[in-house]
Amino acid sequence: MTGETNMNDLAGSGPGGPLGSDALTGLTIAAMRDGLRARNFSAHELAEAHIAAVEAARVLNAFIVETPGHARAAAAAADAALASGTAGPLAGIPLGIKDLFATVGVQTTAASKILEGFVPQYESTVTAKLFGDGAGMLGKLNMDQFAMGSSNETSAFGNVVSPWRAGGSNRPLVPGGSSGGSAAAVSARLVAGATGTDTGGSIRQPAAFTGISGIKPTYGRCSRWGVVAFASSLDQAGPMARDVRDCAILLQSMSGFDPKDSTSLDVAVPDFEAALTGDMRGKRVGVPREYRLDGMDAGVAAAWDQGLAWLKDAGAEIVDVSLPHTKYALPAYYIIAPAEASSNLARYDGVRYGLRVAPDGGSLDAMYEATRAAGFGPEVKRRIMVGTYVLSAGFYDAYYQQAQKVRTLIARDFAAVWDQCDVLLTPTAPSAAFAAGDKADPLEMYLNDVFTVPSSLAGLPAMSVPSGLSATGLPLGLQVIGRPLDEAGVLNAGFALERAAGFTARPDRWW
Amino acid sequence: MSVDAAIVTRIAHLARIRLSEGEVLPLAGELNAIIGWIEQLGEVDTTGVEPMTAVIPNLLRWRDDVVTDGAVRDKVLANAPAAEMGFFAVPKVID
After folding, report:
1. B66 touches chain A (CB under 8 A)
2. Phi-psi region of B88 (alpha: psi -120 to 50; beta: other; left: phi over 0)
3. Where is A491: in which H helix or E strand?
4. Annotated catalytic residue: which of A21, A42, A155, A202?
5. Hey, what domains does chain B have and what are their CATH numbers?
6. Does the residue A231 lie in any domain?
7. Which member of A112, A151, A178, A467 is catalytic?
8. Over its length of 511 residues, how does chain A's per-residue pLDDT go in tens digits?
9. How many angstroms separate the CA atoms of B46 and A323, rounded?
10. Which of A140, B14, B20, B51 is close enough to A404 for a disulfide, judged by CB 3.0 to 4.6 Å?
11. Does residue A305 sit within a domain?
12. Quick check: is A155 catalytic?
């Protein structure tokens, strides 16, 4: 492991000599922002360093499409804006964009063959905001197909390989999912930060697996307009970055009311970065006893206890709380999410966009069936089938309706604990990253979401922060869950954890 | 409730996904495992509990009844697998 590059390392490090590529790509977004304004380097140099890093890391398969032209154009605009004093808050920051966000003129596939070649004619609200603030795009990031997966093994464009390896092993590990390309790219220092989306843990779990930070904001905080839909009552966009401050900076840009999304919340967006004091005095941190699973991984349990001790040292009071319906969150999720997906993905019919497979002389129905059979991957088909089944006549009440009632009970559990605490602290995932192919059984894969799904069902803001390394040298993450719309409180608790953890580990470069 | 080959075939048709014969039985096994697992929800007493409709309270907003876009036909058709004379083209649906 090597330490995080900081401003003091700039001179003379990296293959390019002073301001070499490693020196620039190792900076946080906050340090890039400050360095650009101080004219220590230009946005052009920053973009070129990242473009080179992306090209050198193709073995990770983190990108579906690289867009160096977009990054260069944004850098040129940023350098001009910096010179004239009109630079936006993200001027010249090179980002990766999950391939779930519609980007005008750039192929957007949700990592599915059914959308191969689809070139949006419009920009998603979230990417429009980031680019409007001056950020550039290095490319579209690989992911689990339609965001269905926890290991990035369901992409039609191949697995993403984690930049991390267990100590003494060359075995390829998964970066987590579904935002696995985002996690790998941020962790490997290919991009300064990335967009992710989170339906049941798709920002938090890959962040934990790759030693970075990521926040899923409150449902409705970021517009879903232009984000390929998976399960609309759960999907939320959020940032993934190397530290909590960078998450706050990106979330600031991504958040805000959007009349084009009927579930967008018309509420003020606080200054997230200003909330980062690390002071937890007067705050109560809840420990949900139902998350203490039988047979829990010893390293994960120890990291959790350590996190609680850190927050106590930062002034917080630790309180035991109960979320009694926790064990039913996963089965409820695996009814609700596939049900919504089966409805949302009905739009892929071979008529308006994407793949069309039309058997000779076949009917319209034959075209639908052949198109969807060829275009969707196995996990997507599986979930559409489960969703169709639970919504079908005779089963709707027993499955879907019951799951939505259980969802109400899960949301009530959380609402009740906010009388006793301000945030909750839990592990992000039940283990460190596993190897590709290790979880071939779909059900076993679903269980990896055990700690992230409940807060998704309740629409709450939640983030993962790296806390340390496992016995085999792999990152472990801790999850902070907060009240509705209290991203500032979640980020600040994450910031307190980050300061105490002093996590500087990064993957050794083998690619 | 056990998911058999006939049910898988029916669901696949409802979902408009063609399955090869070799896909049906493995899918039946996987769906049985998943459905069997989610059936534990039946043990939760939900008497008098309203199903969740909006996870964060939010009102559907009104907007002025005015045209806000349009004249984007070519953009709408830009990604069509087949478009003719300004329309989406599909296989014949009426004899």
Report:
1. no
2. beta
3. helix A487-501
4. A202
5. 5-43 (1.10.20)
6. yes
7. A178
8. 444 444 333 433 333 333 444 899 999 999 999 999 999 999 999 999 999 999 999 999 999 999 999 999 999 999 999 999 999 999 999 999 999 999 999 999 999 999 999 999 999 999 999 999 999 999 999 999 999 999 999 999 999 999 999 998 999 999 999 999 999 999 999 999 999 999 999 999 999 999 999 999 999 999 999 999 999 999 999 999 999 999 999 999 999 999 999 999 999 999 999 999 999 999 999 999 999 988 899 999 999 999 999 999 999 999 999 999 999 999 999 999 999 999 999 999 999 999 999 999 899 999 999 999 999 999 999 999 999 999 998 899 999 999 999 999 999 999 999 999 999 999 999 999 999 999 988 888 999 999 999 999 999 999 999 999 999 999 999 999 999 999 999 999 999 999 999 999 999 999 9
9. 16
10. B51
11. no
12. no
Known catalytic residue: A216?
Answer: no
Query: Which residue type sits at B78?
Result: A
Position A333 in a domain: no
User: Nearest residue on chain A to B16, judged by CA atoms?
Assistant: A369
Domain total for chain A? Answer: 1
Q: Say yes or no for a CB contact (<8 Å) between A399 and B38.
A: yes
* Interface with chain B: mutation pick from A405, A414, A445, A447, highest number of B CBs within 10 Å: A405
Which has the closest alpha carbon to A218: A265, A273, A278, A286?
A: A265
A267 contacts chain B (CB < 8 A): no
Kindly state whether A362 is in contact with chain B, defined as any CB-CB distance less than 8 angstroms.
yes
In chain B, residues with a C-beta closer than 8 Å to the C-beta of A382 are: 27, 30-31, 34
Whether A178 is catalytic: yes
Planar angle of CA A58, A62, A67, nearest 5 degrees: 80
Task: From A466, A458, A461, select the one nearest A495 (Cα to Cα).
Answer: A466
Q: Among A218, A367, A446, whose Cβ lies nearest the Cβ of B91?
A: A367
- Beta strands, E only, A382-491: 423-427, 462-469, 475-482
Q: Which of B41, B45, B77 to mutate to test the interface with A (most CBs of A within 10 A)?
A: B41
Q: B84 touching A, CB under 8 A? A: no
Write down the pTM of the prediction.
Answer: 0.95
- Look up the CATH number of the domain holding residue A174: 3.90.1300.10
ipTM over 0.90: yes
Place of tokens 């990106």: A250
Cβ neighbours of residue B74 closer than 8 Å, sequence gap 6 or more: none
Inter-chain contact B40–A328, Cβ cutoff 8 Å?
Answer: yes
CA distance A344 to A336: 12
- CB proximity A351 to B under 8 Å: yes
